[in-house]
Specification:
This protein has 638 residues and is α+β, with helices and mostly antiparallel strands. The chain has 19 helices and 20 strands. Helix 2 packs parallel to helix 9. Bound molecules: flavin-adenine dinucleotide.
Length: 638
């Protein structure tokens, strides 16, 4: 185990990794339920690690389906997608092969908050992911609905040993990973109409929910929504603002060759806005919106609100931005990003007719909301193993998250841990200073989110250490150690590190004329200097022929060196604090300056260490700092 794994979250709540008892009736090592982003990464990860895996999904023709927006990445989400790639996953390669617009977001801001985003050709993306799944050795796809979990009771212990399929077949496995997304007891809403289903054209499933409840798990209701899809014809493109991709984009995957990237023709997106007339229409019809009429109980995503939520929650705003995103190269379907809604169809028609440029647009499919069960993820350990049901892992939207990248990252970690469990090996847990995936799992399993959880850079206290450009340096060796990636991936990272090392040595040595007596490294530390400029001015540096992506990493390394050093010291301090024990009878009333909520919760929950104290909701970093001083005093007093 690395020291990083002992960071907040991982150490205290680690599930004792017992080897599963050998089951003579076992058919496979790992069964994964669901062929969405979580399920695909889970199944592929377990298969890469040598497990015999069956992926059971309701529709084999929808493996890797993008239920909502045809895009991968974004700020923080792009980091997650690159982490999935560095851990050997499918998402990065799939989007690189099927992307029709690539952009790096936030380039005007610091390196830590930049994130790659790509528009996908939706059908090509799904086909590419399906091909990867079908080609994977050790992985079989079974098209069926899972109706029940197979559970064995032994004295007072319970264990999940497989799944029962529609039609009666049973699949027994050492580990089961459930990734059923928005499908559990799902209801779709458009205005007054309600239909059962987790996504247009697909059923809802209920048996798994009932079995989770029987296992004693707490479920809740969440909701999400999707916007209308338009036909390309009828949109007045000339009146809209075009938004092209980057002129020389970089791929998501460390395995995609820069030469020849991107492979598909690139297309622009377009921007328009709602206005006060469309907002008036929404307000006049708000009583017909399922959320406002009380027909939806589930909590919606705060950070991806429906247009009715935006209008009602931000009455001071007189317009909201809408992005028109093509769903592919060979389709006329246009996705209206920003206009998620479950208003009745007649209101959606009237609303679109008021948006500049869309007055004559034809709706191909109206927007809708879906309400579904999720499982409170505080009931999982940091390997996404259900604490009270050994053998059962949960990943993706079922854990209360929203988004493909959050689902994929959890899926990969759950699949890897299911494979480890199946063979009786120890857990694979990423620290909060190693990966956004580590932050994600730690937040989910310790914070008990009550609304759909989406990743942001602000959730990562060590985001300076979690840049998108050098994810491979952090994760590839970790992944290789458990068989998630191969020796070729490690050699690639080592090659890149050697190139960076050579460049760094040159920067420290050269004193070119333009640097005015300083080394090139000192010159580059000035905010206005760039590696690109240095390459143009300094033939020796240019002779290293650094690939474009390493130019970014070199620059970020130079500019961030001081901050990174400080962040690492912080990590060290946190790690020490994590394991500092609080005496059992510690008197919290004697700690002056503690917030009331913090004092009350600490007194009630009596955490064992300062690390555990810091993870209690309502106990803030200043509270922990105060506590640390008093605990140290108590220790000295003996
Ligand atoms: C209408 C809608 C709107 C959305 N809007 C947004 C948004 O605005 N922003 C955002 O970030 N995310 C949004 N999402 C969420 C996004 O689609 C998910 O976060 C992501 O797809 C979750 O991935 P997943 O793998 O967990 O589940 P999913 O992609 O939902 O995949 C679940 C899989 O499980 C299978 N399955 C379900 N039950 C069974 C069963 N009993 N047996 C066998 N197979 C089963 C399904 O067939 C499917 O393959 C939306 C989703 C929907 C449906």
């Amino acid at each position: 185990m690395t020291a990083a794994q002992q960071l907040p979250g991982a150490a205290e709540r680690r599930h004792p990794h017992r080897a599963p008892p050998t089951d003579p009736k076992r058919t496979v090592d790992v069964v994964v339920v669901g062929g969405g982003h979580a399920g695909v990464e889970a199944a592929l990860a377990a298969a890469r690690m040598g497990s015999c895996v069956v992926l059971v999904t309701m529709r084999a023709d929808r493996i890797g389906e993008m239920s909502c927006n045809p895009a991968i990445g974004g700020v923080a989400k792009g980091q997650l997608a690159r982490e999935v790639d560095a851990l050997g996953g499918a998402m990065g390669l799939a989007i690189d092969r099927t992307g029709i617009q690539f952009r790096m977001l936030n380039t005007a801001k610091g390196f830590a908050v930049q994130g790659p985003r790509a528009q996908a050709d939706r059908h090509r993306y799904r086909d590419e992911v399906t091909r990867m799944v079908l080609d994977a050795p050790g992985l079989t796809v079974r098209e069926s609905a899972v109706e029940r979990l197979l559970v064995e009771h032994n004295a007072d212990r319970v264990r999940v040993v497989g799944v029962a399929l529609a039609g009666g077949d049973e699949l027994r496995a050492s580990a089961v990973v459930i990734t059923t997304g928005t499908f559990l007891r799902a209801i779709m809403h458009t205005g007054e109409s309600q239909t059962a289903g987790g996504r247009v054209g697909e059923d809802s499933t209920g048996g798994i929910s009932a079995d989770l409840v029987r296992l004693g798990l707490e479920l809740g209701r969440l909701k999400t929504g999707t916007p209308p899809r338009l036909s390309r014809e009828g949109i007045d493109w000339d009146r809209l603002e075009a938004q092209p991709g980057d002129p020389a984009p970089l791929p998501f995957s460390f395995r995609t060759p820069l030469l020849g990237f991107p492979g598909l023709p690139q297309v622009p997106c377009f921007i328009t806005y709602t206005d006060s007339a469309s907002h008036d229409l929404v307000r006049a019809n708000i009583h017909r919106a399922p959320m406002y009429a009380g027909r939806i109980q589930g909590v919606g995503p705060r950070y991806c609100p429906s247009v009715e939520d935006k209008v009602m929650r931000f009455p001071e705003r007189d317009r909201h931005q809408l992005f028109l995103e093509p769903e592919g190269l060979d389709t006329d379907v246009i996705y209206v990003n920003g206009l998620s809604t479950s208003l009745p169809t007649d209101v959606q028609d009237a609303l679109l007719a008021k948006v500049p440029g869309l007055e004559r647009a034809r709706i191909l499919r109206h927007g809708y909301a879906v309400e579904y069960d999720f499982c409170q993820p505080a009931q999982l350990d940091p390997t996404l193993h259900v604490l009270r049901a050994p053998g059962l892992f949960l990943a993706g939207q079922i854990n209360g998250t929203s988004g493909y990248e959050e689902a994929a990252a959890q899926g990969l970690l759950a699949g890897a841990n299911a494979a480890l469990w199946a063979r009786g090996d120890g857990p694979f847990v990423l620290g909060r200073d190693e990966a956004y995936a580590g932050v994600l799992v730690d937040d989910l399993t310790s914070l008990a989110p009550t609304e759909p959880y989406r990743m942001f850079t602000s959730r990562a206290e060590y985001r300076l250490l979690l840049r998108q450009d050098d994810v491979d340096r952090r994760l590839v060796r970790r992944a290789a150690a458990i068989g998630l990636t191969d020796a070729a991936a490690v050699r690639r990272v080592e090659g890149r590190e050697a190139q960076l090392g050579a460049a760094g040595a040159l920067l420290a040595k050269l004193r070119p004329d333009f640097a005015g007596g300083r080394t090139l490294l000192e010159w580059l530390r000035r905010p206005e200097s760039t590696v690109v400029a240095a390459l143009a001015l300094c033939p020796q540096l240019a002779a290293l022929d650094l690939p474009r992506d390493l130019v970014v990493t070199l620059e970020a390394d130079v500019k961030y060196a001081g901050y990174v050093q400080r962040a690492r010291l912080d990590v060290e301090r946190q790690r020490r604090q994590e394991s500092t024990e609080i005496p059992t009878e510690f008197d919290y009333t004697g700690v002056g300056g503690l917030g009331n909520e913090a004092r009350e919760k600490l007194g009630k929950l009596r955490p064992r260490t300062l690390g555990a104290a810091g993870r209690i909701a309502g106990v803030n970093p200043p509270d922990v700092a105060l506590l640390a001083i008093h605990v140290e005093r108590a220790r000295r007093r003996g």
